[in-house]
Amino acid sequence: MSTSTTPDAETQAGRWFLASLGICVALLGLLFVWLLGRSFLRAWEMRSWPEVSCVILSAEIIEQRHDEFSPVEFQQNLSYAYEWQGESFTGTRITLRENPWTSKRELMEEREKEYTAGMVTSCRLDPAMPERAVLKMDSLAPGYSIWFPGLFVVGGLGITVRALRKH
Known about the structure:
A hairpin with a 2-residue loop joins strand 5 and strand 6. Helix content is about 45%, strand content about 30%. The protein has helices at about 5-45, 105-115, 140-145, 145-165, and strands at about 50-65, 75-85, 85-90, 100, 120-125, 130-135. It has 4 helices and 6 strands, in the order H-E-E-E-E-H-E-E-H-H. It has 2 domains: about 10-45 and about 145-165; about 50-135, no CATH class.
């Protein structure tokens, strides 16, 4: 019994498979380019936010354990007061992405020394939403590494073009 596929049909199927694979690789790369670009632009925008004086109202370390088998995690829980255009606000965020959790007690003890109750420091606030303030700006690092997923976009498109080009 013979198969009904011809070598030409198999070549076509292989080319379409490679083209589809290339498109998938390019789309995944594009997704990560977009995510990194968005993070970079948000961090860049934060550099234009006004800096205001703020007072740390409370600073404590909280602990949590998800279940009996997971390690204890620590988070710095802060509260600080600041004023913007004559109005008082209270903030709780160290960074825009909330206050990070860690399972390293030593790291948390170091962070605890950075902000203590009664300390006067500065924070940055979003002038469009003054209730959104941070003590530390986000890093611009996503912009420095956006080239890596960009390689997947270029490579995926290259695979697609090469697969669809007639030889």
